[in-house]
Write a structure and sequence with these properties.
Elements (H helix, E strand, L loop, with lengths): L2 E5 L4 H13 L4 E6 L9 H7 L3 E4 L5 H6 L5 E4 L15 H21 L2 E7 L5 H5 L3 E3 L4 E3 L8 E2 L2 E2 L10 H20 L4 E6 L1 E3 L11 H11 L4 E3 L8 E6 H13 L1 H4 L3 E4 L6 E3 H12 L6 E3 L9 E2 L4 H7 L7 H14 L1 H8 L1
Helix pairs in contact: 1-8, 4-6, 7-10, 7-12, 10-12
The structure holds nicotinamide-adenine-dinucleotide.
Amino acid sequence: MATILVTGGAGFVGSHLARGLRRERTQDRVVALDNLRRRGAELNIPRLREAGVEFLHGDIRNPEDLDEAGPVDLIVECSAEPSVLAGYDASPRYLVNTNLGGTVNCLEHARKHAAAILFLSTSRVYPVAPLNAAAYIEEETRFALTDDQAMPGLSARGVSEAFPLEGTRSLYGATKLCSELLLREYLEMYSLRGVVNRCGLLTGPWQMGKVDQGVVVLWAARHIYGGPLQYIGYGGQGKQVRDLLHVDDLLRLILYQIDHLDALSGEIFNVGGGAAVSVSLRELTALCQEITGNAIDIGSEPSNRPADIPIYITDHSRVTKRTGWIPQRGVRDTLEEICAWIRDNREALAPILS
Ligand SMILES: NC(=O)c1ccc[n+]([C@@H]2O[C@H](COP(=O)([O-])OP(=O)(O)OC[C@H]3O[C@@H](n4cnc5c(N)ncnc54)[C@H](O)[C@@H]3O)[C@@H](O)[C@H]2O)c1
């Protein structure tokens, strides 16, 4: 029997992975540690317990809290301040102490127990200015990358791991990149095993979407509860594009990585739905209208938000080649599932999503 510690285990991704790991790896003990900073994370505690996951109320900024989890064989590091806007209009102290200092504590915990570590990083490690310089055309409902890109690691398929890292990327992205670097040093110096997954936009039910993070759920929730929405930046037309990855698809990849840690250790992968699972805000609005039957007014703010980019698509060719993993969930079915989840839990979710 192995013990798996999922940090940020009451969050959207952490709770989904913790429950899935418990379900699929029946011999393993799964512990979810979370300080419940994210609003709505507390709703996941009964769901974790129902699934047989142990919940530990703790903070990765405190090494003693990690010690409470005891010896572990694997850490899945999902705790974070996950907003790219964090630190812009307030102190970045929490962001840095959690996303960097806290990750170092997780690495130390891994070193102490010779545990493996899977790190949830982000596409935001790629710098903003080169992403903004991507060549794209404006179609009727979205921006679309062209195939004649000057930047290495960029094509109509999206951004690959070969994209240059020189430039600034937001403090969120910087704390994640620093953590990646430290993780790789820990793997090398202490002969640990680990993998870095640079995730694009993740979504699915039980994501507590808010204005600065979790846009797909926010969009769906506004169409159900009402409330303001705005197309912000790049002319305010809602043509910015992201690829989505359903958290179930991420779980399949994580399960594979756990089973193949020796072969994959040290790898860094771009993980996302790819071009086939991409959507613009405008298209998201149309889908939300269709699925919920509600149309709402959407405002327009032409000027860009800091660190924003017009289009991000994950080129996941590398991880697909190495593991055979391919995202299976599409935009529409993911959105339908999210809308059904909100409707089924309308009252409980109202204080958080409405
Ligand atoms: N959701 C996405 O689209 C996305 C995309 C790329 C990367 N990621 C990464 O995936 C991971 C999970 O993100 P998420 O979407 O589940 O976010 P989330 O906010 O739902 O989950 C993060 C959890 O970490 C907890 N947490 C925050 N600070 C903590 C601390 N100091 N100690 C212990 N727990 C703490 C929060 O309470 C929350 O439950 C993060 O590392 C994030 O950066 C997410």
